[in-house]
Q: What sequence folds into this?
């Protein structure tokens, strides 16, 4: 953040004329706006990617018309359409909850980005408990989903939100346990320290440390992260063929697109968290580069890669059932991640 | 928590619901996610088919027969036409019989492909749906080449077929079968043996053989319950007794007999058998015979009635026709297989989760056009 | 315990198998046709839109009778005596009828093709034009009649006059032949036959 403040004050010397209590908030606002724009643009790009990948996996072509080359403007057109659409609020809905819900879901996704290290310098808030903050703030989203499901006054939406809450609460645990493995081997909760600990090329990345333990932790984090973002095969809160659209069945237009934005923001967040913890964060394959933009590019590249694998999942796999989802979490992921954590602890204790 | 007040919730599943394959409404009473009671409501697609038939002459009914089960129009035509021929008591040239069998079996493959794809969609896998439709398109091309239409053919006529096979049909058909058989392996990889799919379908919504027979379930759904019954073999009509093929009966290789997975997989294996029948029929196709030689100038059966049943992709399709001696049937009753198959869900579906109900509904492969008629 | 691990491993394995399939399809050629740009060639027998060569039509009404949904509406008037209606496709002199109305409502049509078969002159047939979407449903009613409404009115009046004249002639003949011929029951029988 300090680096960012410095850049901004260099670029906009007029800011120094402002009273001191106003400078920091305005820069914070700028940073937030930047991240928001980034998320929006990223969502449009990744949505286009998803549609294209899905189409080609299914021997189709996907959107080809809007914007010329392979319909690259299609998602922009769709976004404009969603913004212009009528925003319908059902007559019997709880209007306050209904209106507020998408913003809370998005807020949770958005707040995570404050502590994500995009590069050596670009980090919203240099927290010494960064990963802990991310874990806690991301679970706020479930409140929004519950509000959406309840506020819609629709039975399908209620089913969806009930499933979603159970899913969120359960899958926090394997995520926490697998993050703990990294935290144990680095000895810090700070995202920056975790990345710094993986300095020096691909073989120093956390995923290869501690023999198999970190690798298993990475897989568990990835699977549980897919579940946290409501993606196939864990998309039971939305479950198109069962619950029509789940918790956002009554939403239309702008509010619906915010749910969408939140989902894709969450995907990117999972990608970036996973690559920060296990794949060396902003460091390249050969180690950190001193050039300023390179770190950001590496980070986004790794994040994208993980998002792409999630997309690949989605267009391959069927959906699990509610009880099977719980089975996967409580009887497979939690015990494995627990034993994994214990094993990693012993390994670290023995090797130090 | 004994004091906790709970209440059952009535949910309307359909008529606009992605899993009901059309416009079926299920009124389900749920306890949480568990379905306690199912009350199916049908009739949203009612088009007075049987009443229409009392106003049209025998030949004009064929386009209406197509529209009952629009996914297997050839099979419907085949059954209807054979019923009328039984009533008229006329002999059919052999080439016509071969062409009819080829068309029926190709249509069976096409229908099962739709069943497979939409079932995958119900379970949440989207890609198999597109794959099966890609392959079905090739069958539809063959149909369009022959009859001129892609879905509602009006191709099989009383006493013959509308056109002879076009030039190049036989080669194209062989080409399709060579293309199609390896694709079954791909469906297996992608869907049938996927662990998640197996978990969702195996040992779910079991229909025991006794229950299946009680409810009059027929076709692949009956064979999935382990009952070895196929009209094409047990009551051979047309020229089905000339071919070498196996009746597919589920063996419970995954899960148990009569579960959703068996119902799904019986269809996959049946497509293989159908392809084999088509191949044999193409090889044995008699050449140079007028396909319209037996078409009667005027269809005016004697007074009387006839019942004829044939094996549709969905089960036993029966036609009961009463003739009063005029060129218009006095009464036509259609015994539609999907209707009987659907009627079992209120019995079988109780106590399932909502997701399992979707899995059950998809696996019995209903076509609402046929149920509502 | 062993089954538990086998379950997990087979699950992961089958997921990977499925992912291999979709990945391999990522690079196979897609089957989509970019419709307005690329058009598929229609088969000869494709049933897209009905067309009538009205010059060849002899007004036999067979197509109208064959239609199960009654989407063909025909009206015929007898041609004027000695009127030249041009040549048919087979270069034969055309006779008998003109058509003030020969409408096929493609919005009602069920594309069964039953009308095409009975036509004795093969003047009703399918053409390969499939792009005939319209904003107004009434535009889907295709008119093939070869007589304008004004002309039709004139012809109707003429026919009416001719009929009156003929009736008069018949009456005159009857009067000439005497009254003992039982003409009344004969009329009845023809009516009932119709």
A:
């Amino acid at each position: 953040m300090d680096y960012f403040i410095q850049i901004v004050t260099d670029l906009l010397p007029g800011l120094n004329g402002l009273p001191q209590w106003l400078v920091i908030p305005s820069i914070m606002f700028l940073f937030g706006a930047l991240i928001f724009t980034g998320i929006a643009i990223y969502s449009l790009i990744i949505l286009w990617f998803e549609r294209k990948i899905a189409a080609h996996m299914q021997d189709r072509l996907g959107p080809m018309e809007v914007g010329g080359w392979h319909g690259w403007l299609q998602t922009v057109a769709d976004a404009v359409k969603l913004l212009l659409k009528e925003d319908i609020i059902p007559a019997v809905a709880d209007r306050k909850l209904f209106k507020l819900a998408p913003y809370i879901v998005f807020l949770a996704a958005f707040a995570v980005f404050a502590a994500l290290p995009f590069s050596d310098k670009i980090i919203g808030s240099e927290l010494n408990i960064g990963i802990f903050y991310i874990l806690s703030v991301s679970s706020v989203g479930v409140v929004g989903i519950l509000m959406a499901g309840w506020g819609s006054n629709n039975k399908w939406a209620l089913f969806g939100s009930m499933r979603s809450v159970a899913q969120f609460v359960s899958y926090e645990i394997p995520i926490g346990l697998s993050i703990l493995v990294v935290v144990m081997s680095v000895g810090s909760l700070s995202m920056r320290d975790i990345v710094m600990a993986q300095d020096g090329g691909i073989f120093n990345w956390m995923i290869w440390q501690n023999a198999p333990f970190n690798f298993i932790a990475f897989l568990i984090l990835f699977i549980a992260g897919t579940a946290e973002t409501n993606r196939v095969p864990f998309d039971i809160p939305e479950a198109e063929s069962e619950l029509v659209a789940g918790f956002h069945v009554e939403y239309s237009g702008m509010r619906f697109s915010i749910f969408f934005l939140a989902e894709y923001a969450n995907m990117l967040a999972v990608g970036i968290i996973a690559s920060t913890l296990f794949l060396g964060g902003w460091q390249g394959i050969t180690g950190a580069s001193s050039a300023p933009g390179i770190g950001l590019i590496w980070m986004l590249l790794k994040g994208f890669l993980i998002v792409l694998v999630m997309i690949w999942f989605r267009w391959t796999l069927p959906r699990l059932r509610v009880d099977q989802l719980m089975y996967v979490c409580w009887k497979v992921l939690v015990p494995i991640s627990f034993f994994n954590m214990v094993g990693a602890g012993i390994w670290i204790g023995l090797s130090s | 928590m004994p004091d906790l007040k709970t209440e059952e919730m009535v949910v309307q599943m359909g008529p606009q619901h992605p899993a009901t394959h059309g416009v079926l409404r299920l009124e389900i009473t749920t306890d949480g996610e568990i379905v306690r009671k199912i009350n199916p409501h049908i009739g949203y697609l009612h088009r007075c088919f049987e009443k229409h038939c009392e106003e049209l002459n025998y030949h004009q009914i064929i386009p209406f027969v197509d529209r009952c089960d629009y996914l297997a129009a050839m099979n419907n035509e085949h059954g209807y036409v054979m019923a009328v021929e039984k009533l008229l008591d006329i002999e059919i040239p052999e080439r016509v019989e071969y062409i009819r069998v080829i068309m029926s079996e190709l249509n069976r493959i096409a229908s099962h492909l739709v069943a497979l794809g939409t079932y995958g969609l119900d379970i949440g896998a989207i890609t198999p749906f597109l794959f099966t439709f890609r392959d079905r398109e090739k069958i539809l091309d063959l149909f369009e080449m022959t009859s001129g239409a892609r879905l509602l053919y009006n191709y099989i006529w009383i006493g013959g077929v509308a056109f002879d096979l076009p030039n190049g049909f036989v080669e194209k058909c062989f080409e399709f079968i060579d293309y199609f058989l390896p694709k079954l392996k791909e469906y297996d990889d992608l869907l049938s043996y996927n662990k998640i799919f197996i978990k969702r379908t195996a040992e779910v919504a079991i229909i025991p053989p006794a229950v299946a027979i009680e409810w009059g379930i027929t076709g692949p759904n009956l064979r999935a319950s382990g009952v070895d019954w196929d009209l094409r073999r047990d009551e051979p009509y047309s020229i089905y007794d000339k071919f070498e093929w196996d009746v597919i009966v589920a063996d419970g290789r995954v899960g148990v007999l009569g579960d959703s997975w068996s119902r799904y997989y019986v269809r996959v294996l049946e497509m293989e058998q159908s392809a084999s029948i088509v191949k044999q029929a193409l090889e044995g196709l008699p050449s140079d015979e007028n396909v319209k030689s037996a078409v009667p100038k005027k269809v005016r059966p004697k007074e009387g009635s006839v019942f004829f049943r044939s094996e549709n992709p969905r089960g036993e399709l029966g036609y009961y026709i009463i003739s009063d001696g005029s060129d218009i049937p006095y009464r036509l009753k259609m015994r539609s297989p999907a209707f009987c198959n659907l009627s079992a869900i209120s019995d079988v579906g109780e106590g399932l989760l909502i997701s399992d109900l979707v899995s059950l509904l998809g696996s019995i492969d209903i076509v609402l056009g046929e149920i509502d008629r | 315990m062993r089954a538990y691990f086998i379950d997990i491993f087979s699950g992961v394995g089958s997921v990977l198998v499925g992912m291999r399939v979709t990945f391999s399809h990522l690079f196979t050629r897609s089957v989509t046709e970019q419709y307005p740009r690329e058009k598929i060639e229609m088969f000869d027998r494709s049933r897209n839109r009905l067309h009538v060569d009205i010059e060849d039509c002899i007004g036999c009404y067979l197509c109208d009778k064959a239609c199960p949904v009654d989407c063909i509406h025909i009206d015929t008037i007898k041609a004027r005596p000695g009127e030249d209606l041009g040549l048919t496709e087979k270069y034969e002199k055309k006779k008998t009828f003109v058509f003030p109305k020969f409408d096929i409502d493609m919005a009602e049509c069920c594309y069964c093709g039953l009308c095409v078969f009975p036509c004795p002159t093969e003047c009703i047939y399918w053409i390969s034009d499939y792009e005939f979407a319209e904003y107004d449903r009434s535009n889907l009613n295709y008119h093939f009649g070869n007589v304008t409404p004004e002309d039709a009115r004139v012809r109707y009046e003429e026919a009416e006059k001719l009929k009156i004249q003929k009736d008069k002639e018949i009456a005159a003949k009857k009067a000439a032949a005497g009254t003992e011929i039982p003409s009344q029951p004969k009329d009845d029988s023809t009516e009932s036959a119709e």
Remarks:
- DSSP finds 13 helices and no strands in chain A.
- Residues 167 and 326 of chain A are 7 Å apart (CA to CA).
- Chain A has two domains: 1-84, 93-351.
- Residues 1-84 of chain A form one domain.
